[in-house]
Amino acid sequence: MAKIMKQCNHAGCRQLVPYDVRYCEKHQHNANAETYHKRMYGEHEGRYQQFYKSSQWRKLSRKFLENNPICVQCYQDGVIRKADVVDHVIELRDDWSRRLDESNLQPLCYRHHNQKTKQARETRLKEASIKNGGKA
């Protein structure tokens, strides 16, 4: 059975690609480079990306996970599950000064970390919307 095809997402490109692929081979590299550039050099994003790549953070998070190997949210739900991520209780965007404060860290599994991050992002967007007078 043939796959459903669509046009490449690059503006003006008429190359057909499988429906589950975003760009043709010619434009895939451009898309990856653009995403990387936004992530690394965006207005404020670069600061966070550089921090998470720093040796200070890597050492601290590795040591923290060794000492706290269980997801605290799963444990509260009565399940013992391995923690995959060291999470900042108060996010870096909200208080940069607490980025290396161990009392601001908690071990989470990917599921709970993603839920918390999504909720914090939505809260931040709502607050920004309120500050702008309801204009998002």
UniProtKB/TrEMBL annotation:
InterPro entries reported in the protein's UniProt record: HNH (IPR002711), HNH_nuc (IPR003615)
Keyword vocabulary terms for this entry: Endonuclease, Hydrolase, Nuclease
Chain residue ranges for the region called Disordered: 116-136
Transmembrane segments: none
Sequence ranges assigned to domain HNH nuclease in this UniProt record: 60-114
The keyword Hydrolase belongs to this UniProt entry's keyword annotation: yes
Compositional bias ranges of the Basic and acidic residues kind: 119-129
Keyword Nuclease among record annotations: yes
SMART domains linked: HNHc
Pfam families per the UniProt record, alphabetical: HNH
GO MF term set: endonuclease activity; hydrolase activity; nucleic acid binding; zinc ion binding
Entry's Gene Ontology cellular component terms: cytosol
Homology family: Belongs to the HNH nuclease family.
Name under which the protein is recorded: Putative HNH nuclease YajD
Organism name: Levilactobacillus brevis
Source organism phylogeny: Bacteria, Bacillati, Bacillota, Bacilli, Lactobacillales
